[in-house]
Amino acid sequence: MDALLLALLGCLLGEIGDKSQLLVLALATRFQRNGAVIAGIIVAAIANAALSATAGAWIGPMLGSDPRLLFLSLSVLFLGIGLLWPVTSPDPLASWPTGAFVTTMLGLFILGFGDGPQFLILGITTHSGNPVLAAMGGAIGVIAASVPVVLLRDRIFAILPIRAIRLGGAALLLLVGAMLALSALALV
User: Fold this and answer.
1) Backbone torsions φ then ψ of 10, nearest 5 degrees
2) What SS3 class is residue 17?
3) What is the band of 163 on the pLDDT scale with cuts at 50, 70, 90?
4) Closest Cα partner for 87 from 167, 155, 146, 184?
């Protein structure tokens, strides 16, 4: 259950104000087809989470308990640093000739490669050995961060203090990641 909750909260926090939300906003505004965009978000989130969890399930058994904890700490630190990184608007995929569902699905799937939430799911799975719960939590977190953007469009960015959430989340994740790293290295 820890894997599910950690992945859900971490991925939700990692997606707030991120380039994925900006792409979802551009696509929702462009296509005006909320159902198709939301379906694309769901499929991309599940596919990315499943891919990360599968890789974590493959890597985890090769490592001892301390290296698995260090791997988790690095993924948490990576996500925390990512929240501090300036966000640039992604390509709105205007030249893609596909419809709302396929453009959203492929765009978010490609954009999610190597992103902080994907690496967090990998780290949680590597440490916990529970790929199903980590993938479910991560996918739910990404979906929960993206769907309100489709439904509320620009208003979501006016409602939420995005900068404060990203800075506070970064501080929290960097602190937790550092504590996990110190524990993995037997320094605490």
Assistant:
1) -65, -45
2) coil
3) very high
4) 167
Cα separation of 18 and 24, whole Å?
10
DSSP state of 63: S
Burial of 19 (0-12, 13-18, 19+ CB in 10 A): middle
* pLDDT score, position 151: 94
- pLDDT, one tens digit per residue, over 31-72 is 989 999 999 999 999 999 999 999 999 999 999 888 999 999
Q: For residue 49, which of 117, 145, 150 has the smallest C-alpha distance? A: 117
Give the single-character DSSP code of 112: H
Which pLDDT tens digit goes with each residue over 8-20? Answer: 999 999 999 899 9
The whole-angstrom separation of Cα 185 and Cα 14 is 26
* Class of residue 94 by CB neighbours under 10 A (exposed 0-12, middle 13-18, buried 19+): exposed
Cα separation, 77 vs 75, in Å, equals 5
